[in-house]
Amino acid sequence: MLTMSMYHSIALDLAQRIINAEFPVGSKISGRSLLASHYNVSSETVRKAVGLLKDANVVRVSQGKEIAVISTEEAYRFIEHHKSMQSVYSLKQELEILLEQKDKIDNRFEQILNEIIGYSDRLRNLTPYNPIEVTVPANSHIVDKTIADIKLWQHTGATIVAIRHNTEIIISPGPLAKIQPLDRLVVVGNSDVLQQVTNFINR
Predict the structure, then answer these.
(1) Number of H helices, E strands in the chain
(2) Is 147 helix (H, G, I), strand (E, B) or coil?
(3) H or E element in which residue 185 lies
(4) 165, CA 20 to 30 Å: which among 2, 24, 36, 122?
(5) Domain ranges of the chain
(6) Helix or strand run (H / E) with residue 49
(7) E-assigned strands of 72-140?
(8) Each residue's pLDDT tens digit, 144-179
(9) CATH number of the 1-118 domain
């Protein structure tokens, strides 16, 4: 949730009071010192709050510091704009939290997969969780196609959990990851996954 400054809260309260006709158009709002006393804040905080309303054309401030209400419509727009900003900020914060969680999950996934790959020789009795590496021939029909294009799982029941490209390893490649010649696909599946995938990429 967006942390609102005190002067912003006061500006919103004054705008709502204007909409409610507590301060009708043309009326004068109490001076800053009285407002400061009413809201139990400093005169500087009230000055900032009134400044927001002035910038939004809700009030006019004279040289003598007199505050006059000039628009109920702009007061309404001021509040609606704030609601929109709150919604956008809340969505942005939620997205940041989800991205952070995704990074943690991806990192943990990579750790676990690397451990499985590193100890695959000791995990042969854990099929179907034992990963198998299959090299893609240069002339394979899946070269230059994406993971989504080849539909490996539909054809073989195997799932690609990583791609080894030269010395690089791509953990949990997305559906748009493109397969290059001589890539090594790290897949998991049932007991005949090696034969199924080999037959598919060589057909």
Answers:
(1) 7, 7
(2) helix
(3) strand 184-188
(4) 122
(5) 1-118, 126-202
(6) helix 43-55
(7) 132-135
(8) 999 999 999 899 988 898 999 888 888 888 899 999
(9) 1.10.10.10
Contact status, residue 153 vs residue 120, Cβ threshold 8 Å = no
Yes or no: say if 195 and 156 are a contact pair by the CB < 8 Å rule.
no
* Residue entry with tokens 């676990």: 112
Structure tokens of 125?
């009795």
Q: Which helix (H) or strand (E) holds 184?
A: strand 184-188
Q: Which residues is 186 bridged to in the sheet?
A: 133, 162
Among 90, 76, 113, residue whose Cα is nearest residue 4:
90
Q: What is the pTM of this model?
A: 0.41
Q: What is the dihedral of CA 72, 73, 74, 76, to 10 degrees?
A: 90
66 secondary structure, DSSP code: -
126-202 homologous superfamily: Regulator of K+ conductance, C-terminal domain (3.30.70.1450)
